[in-house]
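Quick question: what would this complex look like in 3D?
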Amino acid sequence: MDKVLATLHSLAGKRLVIGVPYVWLLLFFVVPFLIVFKISFSWMQPIQPGYAPLFAWVEETQRFVATLNLSNYQVLLQDSLYLSTFLYSVKVAAISTVLCLLVGYPMAYAIARCGPSTRNLFLMLIILPFWTSFLLRVYAWVGLLKTNGVINNTLLALGIIDQPLTLLYTDFAVYIGIVYSYLPFMILPLFSNLEKHDLTLLEAASDLGASPMKAFFKVTLPLSMPGIVAGCLLVFIPAVGEFVIPSLLGRTDQLMIGTVLSAQFFSARNWPVASAVAIVLLLLLLLPILLFQRYQRRELEAAKR
Amino acid sequence: MNNRGWFRNGMLGLGLAFLYIPILSMMVFSFNNSRLVTVWDAENSPTLRWYVRLLENDQLLGAAWISVQIAAMTATGAVILGTIAGLVLARFGPFRGRAFLSAMTTAPLVMPEVITGIAMLLLFVSLEQLIGWPEGRGMLTITIAHITFAMAYVTVVVQSRLAGFDDALEEAALDLGAKPATVFFRITLPLIVPALVSGWLLAFTLSWDDVVISQFVSGPGSSTLPMEIFSRVRRGVSPDINALATILVLIVATGVVLSTLYMKHEEKRRLREEQMARSGN
């Protein structure tokens, strides 16, 4: 190992190799966020590029003038629309994440306790929908949930209901959409955790007189916490900013923050306010994102022999 | 099988039904003759009329062609950059800025797409103002944005594949006097071929599937297939989209099954070769 390192250290090209992904990510991932941050303090401008420069050379006074504009953030604080939208997005994402966990945990558990060949088959079945278009899978639910959609037609035909239920354009539809789209992201980290459990621990618990239920809550569940946290973060973080699912399935009287952000951007064409929304959303998600990064780093280090 | 076993497998069955019923329903209704999409017209169905209509829709076909090109370029770019990043993180040991590189490669995995989309667009607008590049927005800007988030996935795949191998082989080759570049191309690269294949496919799918980021960074005349589909389904369900979905699902299912079989085959071959190498000693 030391020899490898020594050789690589001496290698003049090493820096070059590191530099390629570094420069790419700096330019196309980090710098864009700095620009968003900068523009969130700009005044809106009706002409291209849609925002006034922060620093300008003023001819009359022969000076650089910086105009730092906090009004975009004031708008967010004062307009109750934004606060309620943020709260609603967090609520929807949190409820969907819990539902996703409740659906995904038993599935991951069942797969982890299968024989190796059936296990691979089930894993493939879980991942397969992920490879097909996300958009089309969300769209499939429109056909199922519509007033004259498949679910209502079936329930009516079976005589379970006499009036079609309002399913589409509700909170319920958004929960279903998120659980449906993000389920693989919940199941996979749970599975990779549950698969590694030492089953003799459960035997020991049962030998000591614990009921299977108690053994599950005292042994399996605590051991699977890292998988639960990872799965929940993988669902929660993107779900807060979700745009496609609420626009196709969600309510029209209560928007989610992703929808508001793109409306500010594309319809109102107010780029500075849209940037401020993006910055606040990012700050809101910073802690979960850092948590996820810690988990990811541990996972990859544990994979090393 | 005890009671808990039944509960477990029951939940698994229900979960799989939940995953597949919407897709199957879409496929079934793609053969429905009725315009009403979800009302089955038993007399005149099944029919292929929506498939025929789809093939006549030049707008969708054109968008599909644009998407294929962008996805192929994205996948190739993401595999090159992601492999380098994965190699650097897994094999280069500690260096200054390693933690930052690692953070930059995992953040795109969870970043909400609207944030990435707006950030990318504002970058392109600012760059164009500053240096006049990229001129306007279109396939190039979409591809750059896609490479950036897709390479994060490839990095994870490559990094965990490399973490699963110890570097004894690489070390031995270096001891025997091979140049680091030779070691990479003759030993490391062949070892991670399965990761490169699945990384390429993953990046292709991510790009092919993306609607939100594309919407932000696309320009006139560069509507991708998901963008076309999105603007159609926002206006309501339409039967030809069901037909399109069916075709896509069948292509993907075939692809996934074939690549899974290929990976299994490769894995077996590798194990056999390792065994032969051992027994040869």
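Answer marked as accepted. Chain A has a mean pLDDT of 86.
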